[in-house]
Amino acid sequence: MPQIDTVIRSRQVATPGGVAPASIGVGAGRILAVAGYRAPSTAPEDVDLGETALLPGGVDVDAAVQAPGRDLGEAYADTTAAAVRGGVTTLVASGPADPPITGERGLLAHLAAAAGTVPGVAFLGAVTASSTPADLAELRAAGAVGFHCSLSDGAGSADQRIDDTPLRKAMAELAAMDAPLVVHAEDAGELSEPQGPGPSALMAARPARAERRGVERLVAAARISGTRVLVSPFSAAECAAVLAAARAMGAGISAQTCPHYLCLPVEQVPEGSAAHSCRPPLRSGPNRDALWSALLDRGDPVITQVGSGHRPGTGVAGIGWTLPALWTAARRRGCDVADLARWTSQAPAEFVGLRRKGRIEPGYDADLVAFDAAAEQTVPESDPGPYCGRKLVGRVAGAWVEGRGAYGCALPAVPRRRFAEPDGHAPHTAPEKPAARPR
């Protein structure tokens, strides 16, 4: 039986049952016990966060890592470092990427590039028009936790998009192996070239009907195949009714949106800004409000999770601000940190089958985030992402990956010691191999 070597206490621990004071006993990389806030302990390290909340580490599904022309190893190093600063302890990487993850060779190249990074990295295999059943089975056997594809150019170059016949064939194969599929749902036939720079021109060139048409295609295929499908990124709130109807008829389809769609209506961002030129595009204020309504539905919500939508070099690059940006908007709508945990950790972990991730419960990996929900900060003007210069509420104060300090400032402990160095770098050696297989 592993011994508890660290106890982490907080008056606001986000568990599946809600937010409450608790102490978390950690050993051998796992959560071994959840007890009362003042429960006695003989553990060598005892960290008391006080009013700083403790959340399960974020599981960020469908985040790209590599900007065009960027060295793959450097891209993983930079993106994972930014991810953990944003509260992400498991990165589920997708395309665009070079090499593409269309077979075992490509996946092994990415595994090698990501080796030694913190947080851990899992992978989505790419489904293209030329993918064969053998390709998909090979990727699954090599450790892909799921798959992704695009109906347009959202997951890379236009020649990677997939039409209905190969899509349905692939979905049948994925259903047979119980593998989930993440889909960029904009229909290529509804898109046009932007008539100028900036978010407004992009919104005109990529209208909501493109997303609606793509969602309708996915619903028809999912109802036949039985595949678990996630529409990501989801931006057009008018499509929520289509997804709700499909779910009512038994289709296993849901959606993931991103903090920038929930925080930044197109009316509030500068024209000509490359930092806000995401695909699908930012949409109107009323659309943003409707997205929130779909996310906050207490019945059977169609938007079940929130991911960064990180796309360095080809769209929004904001993974380092995932939790603060989301919390800034969520707190105004009466949400608590348990909602953050459900959207960014529990639901995505369950979708991709990472069975030891996403919850603060005994038996789960000790992937934990200290989150100061009251702290205010201003995003530096030098930041290249969509939140540049904005005032955000909430700050990631620290993070543990499988029980080891991965990021953060010095926090009170008994005996007094830092769980990370003052500059935020982890004082430990990262795992030899990033997580790639469902557990």
TrEMBL record:
InterPro entries: Amidohydro-rel (IPR006680), DHOase/Allantoinase_Hydrolase (IPR050138), Metal-dep_hydrolase_composite (IPR011059), Metal_Hydrolase (IPR032466). Residues 419-439 are annotated as: Disordered. It holds the Pfam family Amidohydro_1. Transmembrane segments: none annotated. Residues 56-376 form the Amidohydrolase-related domain. This is Amidohydrolase family protein. It comes from the Bacteria. Gene3D superfamilies: Metal-dependent hydrolases.
